Amino acid sequence: MSDQPNDFIRQRIKQDIADGTVSGGVVTRFPPEPNGYLHIGHAKSICLNFGVAEEFGGYTYLRFDDTNPLKESDEYVDAIQADVAWLGFHWGDHLTFASDYFDQLYEFAVQLIEQGKAYVCSLSGEEIRVGRGTLTEPGTDSPYRDRPVSENLDLFERMRSGEFPDGAHVLRAHIDMASPNINMRDPVLYRIRHAPHQRTGDAWVIYPMYDFTHCICDALEGITHSLCTLEFEDHRPLYDWVLDNINVNFHPPQIEFSRLGLEYTVMSKRLLNQLVDEGSVSGWDDPRMPTLAGLRRRGVTPGAIREFCRRVGVTKQDNVVEMNLLEFCVRQDLEATACRGMAVLDPLKVVITNYDGAGETLEAPWHPQNAELGVRELTFARELFIERADFELEPPRKYKRLSPGAMVRLRYGFIIRCDEVITDDQGAVMELRCSYFPDSRSGSDTSGLKPKGVIHWVSAEDGKPTEVRVYDRLFQTPNPGAASLADDLNPKSLVLRQAVVEPAVMASDERRFQFERLGYFCKDDERPDAFNRTVTLRDSWRPPA
Ligand code: ATP
Ligand code: MG
């Protein structure tokens, strides 16, 4: 069993509980922007937010941060909900949208204006950017900074009523243009955007900025611990400033932790979007994507992702985690739960010359350690397929698999010996003629023969021809995208195989299997007769030559 994490955030929460500051239970939120699908970095935040609320007797809001109608859509809203639920977390009645609070947000903005703490600025976006100064230079005051309150109220009202085009004015906080923290140099709170919103329709033509919206939503929802990633550390003074200057009686603490990075992939929605748009992958749920939809389609279990997040832990150090750790968690989970089966990905035909019966029924367990899963039947017949890679015309010393004159055991079946090799004009191996030893049946072997190797196989008669997609890492470099994403793509991230799969596997209702000696595979959601490789059996990654 996994031991309970005790990171700095959990320690802080325990302290707050001991001090009596969170008497009503721990309330957290996961606040995705519905502008893309969730990725495994989001899973870290989901596991943390929902995890602490569960551990400390509270609840978690799933709150959509839908303040930018140009980039957001219902497709993403639906996909995000499906992904959070799939990961195993439940928000119950606590599903909210930043847009639910647009009226209140507007009222709070008016409050700031009335106190002289916000003003309508009519500089262009570029002028505002330049005027903010740099890390070493202070900003310069906007010529509109000291507009009278009444004029600001009037203009803001008219911004709302749609009188001005996009970009004509913004509402800015009146803070400190010389602040060492650029976020405090009169940040923009509202902008004009004549765009219909997926939830509020045409009701609004001004939209609040994230930094203004987020803290207020947190306060209105009574979030006891607002957990976010480190890049928001510099925004914390603004988070606090907004809540300190409006009339709201709850002020959550913002606590930052490090983002999850993962080797051999990219994690920002912008870059993932680019991969989809450029056709480098088949979509957000391409099994090579680090999205939850992609990982699910690849066969990764929610339990493996939760365990991965637990092992990564929560710290303040930014780090890029090795892909091996994710693959380890996936294997560990599937090793215990996935049914076993046999498939031949690169079939080589074998004819058993001394067998001409109607087929011998053999039995094999669905799982070597879990007898409860029962057994399946295999048919040994005159014609079989083995893996091309399990035969060598000229074997190296100590070769354990099949070669001319050598013997090998067929898994759960009989020992066979290769008597003859059929080649084509170019010398390519086309077929093997073998004999089998009837008294060598697995489980009741009296032959006294001791072949060194055991190989997997599928009967040619009832084996099912099907497509197997052998997926590998999408990128061939650990930190892709430094120069160009496209240059770093792994050309062998997807290899299609015309394979033959054991019939009991095809007929089973299970989705995930270990194909013996090959790896873990999963029936594809959209084409259940095709398999996606989830992960290899052991860590065998090498960059492509
Ligand atoms: P991206 O950079 O991928 O677009 P984002 O931060 O813009 O991510 P949001 O939808 O705003 O995406 O994120 C929702 C929540 O998930 C935020 O609280 C954010 O801090 C968290 N989150 C996003 N990416 C990661 C990550 N790689 N590791 C941990 N938490 C993350
Ligand atoms: Mg964001």
Give an account of the 3D structure.
The protein is α/β, with parallel strands linked by helices. It folds into three domains: 254 residues, Rossmann fold; 106 residues, Ribosomal Protein L25, Chain P (Beta Barrel), CATH 2.40.240; 122 residues, Ribosomal Protein L25, Chain P. 27% of the residues lie in helices and 23% in strands. It is built from 14 helices and 27 strands. The strands form seven sheets. Strands 12-25-26-27-23-24-13 form a seven-stranded mixed sheet. It has a seven-stranded mixed sheet with strand order 21-18-19-20-14-17-22, with no helix packed on it. Strands 4-5-6-7 form a four-stranded antiparallel sheet. The longest helix has 16 residues. The site of adenosine-5'-triphosphate (ATP) has 14 residues, from α2 and β8.
